[in-house]
C-alpha cells in the first residue's frame, strides 16, 4: 500500500505496481487488431487474434491466481475489500451504460428514424417506403431500394421464453447457493452453484439454436436492416456476457470445492453473483423490448 506525503496510509487502497494490466492491454490490442484485419480479408489476422487471445487468457490466469493466493493467504483487509466492492460496482455501472446505448439506439431507430424517413419530405424519394417497424407489420423491411432481403422477425415463442425461464431459474439457484454459503452449508452451496452453471450453459446452447433458426428459417441476419443489426447486437452482446458470467460462476464453484471462502468473507462469490443478476435484469429488458415489441 502506498502512503501520502506525510507518511500516513490513505483511506483507500492503492495497489502496488504490476505488470498484469499492461500485459492484458497488449493482449486485447492484438485481439482487436487481428479481428479487424481478419474481417477485412487478411488471413494473418486470424492468427494474430488467436495469439492475442491466448496471451490475454494467460495473463488473466496469472493475475487472478495471484489475487486468489493473496486472498487465501489473509493479505486482504477491510480497505482492500471495500476497493473490490467499489470496483465491481463501477464495472457493472459501465455495463449498464453499455447496454443502455444499444437500447437507446433501438428506441431511436424505431421511434424517430423510421417515422422521419416516412415523412412527407421523403415521400417523393421513396414512395414505396413503409414507415413501420418490422415486428409491427409482417414483411415490412423498410428497404425502398431493395437492398435488404425479405425476412421474418423473431417472436417471443418459444426459444426466447425458454431462455427467460432458464435465466430466472438460475437467479434463484444462485441465491439459494449464496444463502447456503452464509450459513456454512458448503455442500449445498456447491450443488446449487453447479446447477446455476449448467443453466447458463443451456441458455447459450438455446441461443445458438435460436441464431441458427433465425438465419436458416427466417432469413434474419445482421444485414437485415436496422432491425437485424439491433437484434443481433443486443442479443449477441448479452450472450457474450452470459458466457463471461458463466465462467465467473464456474471458477467460483471450483474455488468453493477447494475450500475457499467463508460465511464471513466471500466477496469473490458476491461479485460474481452481482454480475449474474445484472445479466438477468438485462435479459428481461431484451425479452420485453426486442421480442415482444
Query: Measured on Cα atoms, how large is the radius of gyration?
Result: 23 Å
Secondary structure class reads mainly alpha
Find the count of extended strands (DSSP E, 2+ residues). 0
The largest β sheet comes out as: none
Which tags fit this structure?
293 residues, mainly alpha, Helix Hairpins, Four Helix Bundle (Hemerythrin (Met), subunit A), 2 domains, 8 helices, globular, disordered N terminus
Structure, explained:
This protein is mainly alpha-helical and 293 residues long. The chain has 2 domains: 1-75, Helix Hairpins; 77-292, Four Helix Bundle (Hemerythrin (Met), subunit A) (Up-down Bundle), CATH 1.20.120.80. It has 8 helices and no strands. The chain has helices at 20-39, 44-72, 78-117, 120-123, 159-182, 186-216, 225-257, 267-292. The radius of gyration is 23 Å and the shape is globular.
Amino acid at each position: 500500500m502506498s502512503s501520502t506525503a506525510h507518511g500516513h496510509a490513505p483511506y483507500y487502497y492503492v495497489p502496488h505496481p504490476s505488470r498484469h494490466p499492461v500485459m492484458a492491454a497488449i493482449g486485447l490490442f492484438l485481439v482487436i487488431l487481428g479481428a479487424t484485419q481478419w474481417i477485412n480479408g487478411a488471413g494473418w489476422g486470424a492468427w494474430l487474434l488467436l495469439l492475442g487471445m491466448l496471451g490475454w487468457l494467460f495473463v488473466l490466469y496469472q493475475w487472478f491466481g495471484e489475487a486468489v493466493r493473496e486472498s487465501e493467504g489473509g493479505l486482504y483487509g477491510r480497505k482492500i475489500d471495500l476497493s473490490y466492492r467499489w470496483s465491481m460496482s463501477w464495472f457493472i455501472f459501465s455495463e449498464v451504460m453499455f447496454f443502455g446505448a444499444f437500447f437507446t439506439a433501438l428506441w431511436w431507430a424505431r421511434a424517430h428514424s423510421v417515422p422521419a424517413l416516412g415523412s412527407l419530405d421523403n415521400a417523393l424519394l421513396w414512395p414505396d417506403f413503409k414507415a413501420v417497424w418490422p415486428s409491427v407489420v409482417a414483411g415490412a423491411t423498410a428497404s425502398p431500394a431493395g437492398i435488404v432481403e425479405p425476412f421474418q422477425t423473431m417472436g417471443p415463442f418459444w426459444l426466447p421464453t425458454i431462455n427467460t425461464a432458464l435465466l430466472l431459474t438460475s437467479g434463484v439457484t444462485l441465491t439459494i447457493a449464496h444463502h447456503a454459503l452464509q450459513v456454512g452449508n458448503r455442500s449445498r452451496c456447491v450443488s446449487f452453484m453447479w446447477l446455476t452453471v449448467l443453466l447458463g450453459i443451456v441458455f447459450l446452447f438455446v441461443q445458438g439454436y435460436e441464431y441458427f433458426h433465425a438465419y436458416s428459417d427466417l432469413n434474419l441476419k445482421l444485414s437485415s436492416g436496422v432491425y437485424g443489426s439491433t437484434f443481433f447486437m443486443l442479443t449477441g452482446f448479452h450472450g457474450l456476457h452470459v458466457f463471461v458470467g458463466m465462467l465467473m460462476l464456474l471458477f467460483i464453484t471450483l474455488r468453493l470445492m477447494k475450500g475457499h471462502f467463508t460465511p464471513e468473507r466471500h466477496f469473490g462469490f458476491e461479485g460474481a453473483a452481482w454480475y449474474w443478476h445484472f445479466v438477468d435484469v438485462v435479459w428481461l429488458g431484451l425479452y420485453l423490448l426486442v421480442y415482444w415489441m
